[in-house]
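User: structure tokens for this one?
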Amino acid sequence: MAAATVRLFLLLLPLCLSLTIVSATATVPVPELIRETCMHAKSHHDLCVAVLSSDPKSNTSDVRGLLEIALKLTTENLTKTADFVADFLDEADKKSTEPGLQQCLAYCEDEYIDAVDQLTNAAAALESKVYKDVEKWVAVAMADVKACQQECRDIPGDKRGLTKKNGDVDRLCSITLTINQILL
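Assistant:
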């Protein structure tokens, strides 16, 4: 009888431990400031929470710190998309791809180069606590991304997720602007 009880215990122990671990990780609360800040993001609320929560510094940040995190992650995403566009254009040029796609990608490359510069300016404005300028530079970067999207919208064929990447950057810019708005 004791051996059966020990076997049952040993069989159930890993299950109990794994449920405890899952339970503990599933109930980690979102810090109140992140939750309150992201309420302003309305349609992007869940993305806002996910983005801000992805940086461990967000747990101890004030609103300005959350803005810094959002701007940093937006800049990283935008820079990766700029690199993607440049690589895609190089490949399209080598393959003599359809001219409309090459034109779209060349246009987007210029827009993304400009957008990276705008977010660099926004970071400098944030460092100086000039939130009106943060708003201006992020809005200009967002307009650059939308211009890319507009230029390429009628191009048929495989754009390798460029539309989605543009949308992702646009949403991140929107979240950054929303957080900045709290500080204005």
